[in-house]
Amino acid sequence: YRGLRIAAERGVELLVTPETSLTGLFPSSPVTTDPEPVFEAESKLRAFIHELDGAPYLVAGLPEWRKIPEHRLQKTRYNISRVYDPDGNVASTHTKVHSAERGFWHGYHLNEFDVLGVPVSMHICHDHRYPELWTLPVMFGTRLVLHPSNGGRVSGSVDAFQEVAKEITSSSHAFYVNVNGEGGSYIVGPHRRGELLASSSECSVKNPEFPMVGPAEEGLFHARIRVHDAFGYWPVRSFRASEEVAKAYVAQYIALGGLRVP
Predict the structure, then answer these.
(1) 42 phi and psi angles, rounded to 5 deg
(2) Which end of the chain is more exposed for a tag (fewer CB within 10 A), N or C?
(3) What SS3 class is residue 179?
(4) Whether 203 contacts 213, CB under 8 Å
(5) What is the pLDDT of residue 69?
(6) Of residues 176, 225, 219, 149, the one with CA closest to residue 7
(7) Using an 8 Å Cβ cutoff, are 194 and 169 in contact?
(8) 8: CB partners within 8 A, 6+ apart
(9) Could you give the C-alpha distances from 13 to 17, 56, 117, 148, 248, in angstroms and in order?
(10) From CA 204, how far away is CA 256, in angstroms rounded?
């Protein structure tokens, strides 16, 4: 609630929170094994957004249970990040593609959506190990990539953190937002030598532990991005290698449930 209020005050249009931000990432705990309190908490969140003046679009994470005919379980649990519009409605729901947690099933599906006309894709935490999950969406139009995660604490020097963050867009030429539950979060621009647009406070040069990264801190970091500066250069060049290559990429994109089928 506090994050939403501050985001609304500062004119943020899209607020991204970490993987399983509603419950925390506790795969075996009752907090993520009982659907009823999760549903109740989500309902309260949606009501809060609906009543908040100037509310942004929100990406929030939680478990979801689905009836899958092929599965033995009565309901299968997924690790999802859900997009809510400024009225508190569910705009879209996106599963972790390759779940790394015990008791959660895999989404096996690209996660794409639009926010205010901006083509967006998302992969969750461990999904960053699978390059096609950002390469294919960028190839077919995505210009903003979101990466909510709960991947543990970031350590080392601030300089090292910044160098790693700047490299993240070197194969996409798209804007990239990483939001991690234990710190080390950032927004990077699409340039060949990625520009660090913003980062969480424990990774800034002003943190008390500098030149090292400090302990994770609660906070909101943000940047205004010009989406038209992202051209998706490298994935698009791969697509254009030949007609045969293009057909193969289209087939893979469709097989993974791509939203923007050409």
Answers:
(1) -65, -40
(2) N
(3) strand
(4) yes
(5) 85
(6) 219
(7) yes
(8) 52, 53, 54, 55, 56
(9) 13, 5, 12, 17, 36
(10) 38
Confidence (pLDDT) at 63: 96
- The tokens of 26 are what? 């506790």
Contacts of 238 (CB under 8 A, 6+ apart): 135, 139, 245, 249
Q: Is the dihedral of CA 125, 130, 136, 138 positive or negative?
A: positive
Check residue 12 and give its pLDDT: 97
Sort residue 125 into left (φ over 0), alpha (ψ -120 to 50) or beta.
left
Alpha-carbon torsion (152, 114, 117, 46), positive or negative: negative
| AA identity, residue 170 | S
Contact status, residue 133 vs residue 97, Cβ threshold 8 Å? yes
Which residue in the block uniquely carries the two structure tokens 């929170």? 17
pTM of the model: 0.95
Q: Is 175 exposed, middle or buried (0-12, 13-18, 19+ CB in 10 A)?
A: buried
Report the run of H or E that residue 4 belongs to, with start and end: helix 2-9
The two three-digit tokens of residue 218, written as one number: 């609660």
Distance CA 195, CA 211 (A): 20
Q: How confident is the model at residue 28 (pLDDT cuts 50, 70, 90)?
A: confident
Nearest by Cα to 71 from 99, 103, 94: 103
Helices and strands, number each (H, E), in the chain: 6, 10
The helix (run of H) or strand (run of E) holding residue 59 is strand 57-66
Q: How far apart are CA 233 and CA 230, in angstroms?
A: 8
